[in-house]
Amino acid sequence: MTRTLTVAERLASTEKDALLDDIASHSEWDRFLVEQAVLHFGETHAEWSCNQIREVLPDLGRGFLGAAINSLRTGGIIERTGQYVPSTSPSTHAHVIAVWRLTADGRRIARQRRNARAQQRRAA
Fold first, then answer.
1. How far are the Cα atoms of 8, 34, 73, 76, 109 from residue 105, in angstroms, in the given order?
2. Does residue 49 carry a pLDDT above 80?
3. Given 3.30.460.10, 3.10.105.10, 1.10.10.10, 1.20.1560.10, which CATH number is that of 7-123?
C-alpha cells in the first residue's frame, strides 16, 4: 500500500528537484574552477576544507560546491580526513563540514597538470 505525501513532503521534494536542476545547469567552466581550486589546495595544503575553497571562488550558487566536492570524492580524487570544522558560510549557521585531502590519484593528477602548465609556459 502506498502512502500519500504530506504537503510539506511534496514541497520539500519540489525544492530538492529545483536545486538539482540548478546544480546540473552549471557550466563546464564552473566545474573546472572547482576542480582547479581543489587540485591547487591539495598540492599546497596537506588538508583543507570548503571554507578555504569558497574564499577563492566566485559565488557558484546554492549546493554547487558541495555537489562538485562529492563528485571529486566519488571519482577518487579527494578523501575525507575524518576531521570536521565549522562552516564559515553564513547560510549554514556554522554546521560542521569535512576536512579533505588529495588521494594518491589526486596528487598524480595535480602534478601532471602543474607539469603541463610549466611546459606550456616554457614553450611560449
1. 43, 17, 11, 7, 6
2. yes
3. 1.10.10.10
